[in-house]
Amino acid sequence: MEFHTDFKPLTVQPQEIEERSFEMITEELGEHSYTAEQYPVVQRVIHASADFELGRSLVFHRDAIRAGIEAIRAGRPVVADVQMVQVGISKPRLEKFGSTVNVYISDRDVMEEAKRLNTTRAIISIRKAIKEAEGGIYAIGNAPTALLELIRLVKEGAAKPGLVIGVPVGFVSAAESKEELAKLDIPFITNIGRKGGSPVAVAAVNAISLMAERTG
């Protein structure tokens, strides 16, 4: 059976589609208080989610963008809380600087330790990550417990991330974990409320890696 439609796309060229999308986002977003260096992150988050409310809810530490660019250009690793974040991040740009995207949540030792301690794999994966990713970028889009554990370790001086992108989505502890992150005086990108998710974390990392590439 064949289906017919009268709708014709404005363009089928990927670059043109992206450029027109960004133009529409800028037009619809209107006036905002984000800086010129923060705006590319906001723009890509809205592009990934089609959610202007989410875009307007983003909160940046004053050093977030600079710290993220420096971490990538120094070849520091990116730590993803789940595979969905790892898969979405553009690897070629990071590889130019010797950076990798690591995820630990499905590692056998993490699963065994989480079972032994009767806790979440997300928590144990962060405990493992801090031993291998000092100065790296943590991209957390799904697990509030991972973000809360990272915050605890930062407060104790055990974790020294270069940038924390903490945007977990959900109902239990998601909004609260982001509120706690925003209290820290370390480079972070987060948002207010329950919204977030893998596409948001991915969009933020990709926006920063693009800026790192262009300033290289």
From TrEMBL:
Pathway: Cofactor biosynthesis; adenosylcobalamin biosynthesis. It holds the Pfam family CbiC. Keywords: Cobalamin biosynthesis, Isomerase. One of its GO terms (biological process) is cobalamin biosynthetic process. InterPro entries: Cbl_synth_CobH/CbiC (IPR003722), CobH/CbiC_sf (IPR036588). One of its GO terms (molecular function) is precorrin-8X methylmutase activity. The keyword Phosphoprotein does not apply. Gene3D superfamilies: Cobalamin biosynthesis CobH/CbiC, precorrin-8X methylmutase (3.40.50.10230). Residues 16-209 form the Cobalamin biosynthesis precorrin-8X methylmutase CobH/CbiC domain. It comes from the Bacteria. Belongs to the CobH/CbiC family. This is Precorrin-8X methylmutase. It comes from Cohnella cholangitidis.
